[in-house]
Design a protein that fits this description.
The protein is an alpha+beta fold and 176 residues long. It has one domain. It contains four helices and eight strands; from the N terminus they run ααββααββββββ. It has helices at residues 7-19, 25-36, 77-86, 90-98, and strands at residues 67-68, 71-72, 107-109, 112-118, 126-132, 139-145, 152-156, 162-166. Helix 1 (7-19) packs across helix 2 (25-36). The longest helix is centred in the first third of the chain and has 13 residues, at 7-19. The chain is globular. It comes from Sphingopyxis indica. This is Inhibitor of vertebrate lysozyme (Ivy). Residues 30-49 are annotated as: Disordered.
Length: 176
């Protein structure tokens, strides 16, 4: 019997499977789809006011590993400076800045340019998001580690505060 699957069908199946890695069976379909193809937030297609100040608006719609003018999201000076100023835990800062894994397209969320990613094969339990104000560069970062607290995420805020919020770091993907 000959396999007549088109290459794009196989690629789509592989992407959906990757997005569901490490998630429980009851949430894998919903969360995996959200991780790989999030619904844009209401203002996801509109450039953020002042986005030209940091140049981060050029990343909207791209993945964090995609380069803009030869620079990936994590290597952009505004992102690096924001993480260095905001995330006080060096291990968490290094994980957010350097660990490659599945990610969602960068989007505008509540006026900030946001990138979301997770640990390969452990997406549900280990994920993070970085939100940068495109005008000022002020950065907020969310870090979720189910092994530390299964119901809350650790937030590092631009104002120098840290807090724990209910839920994980999947922002924007569930909104329509």
């Amino acid at each position: 019997m000959t396999n007549n699957f088109a290459p794009h069908t196989l690629l789509l199946g592989a992407m959906l499977s990757l997005g569901a890695c490490g998630q429980s069976a009851d949430k894998s379909a919903a969360d995996g789809a959200a991780a790989t193809s999030p619904a844009p937030s209401a203002d996801a297609t509109a450039p953020a006011k002042g986005a030209e100040d940091t140049g981060l608006s050029a990343y909207v719609g791209k993945y964090p590993f995609d380069e803009v003018n030869g620079v990936a999201w994590s290597d952009h000076p505004a992102v690096k400076a924001g993480l260095a100023a905001t995330v006080t835990d060096p291990k968490i800062r290094e994980t957010i800045a350097t660990r490659a894994g599945p990610s969602a397209p960068i989007e505008i969320y509540e006026g900030k340019v946001m990138a979301w990613a997770c640990e390969a094969h452990n997406c549900g339990p280990h994920q993070w998001a970085v939100l940068v104000d495109p005008a000022s560069g002020a950065t907020d970062a969310c870090y979720y580690d189910e092994a530390v607290d299964s119901g809350r995420a650790h937030w590092f805020l631009a104002a120098g505060k840290e807090e724990w919020r209910d839920g994980n770091c999947q922002l924007g993907q569930e909104e329509s």
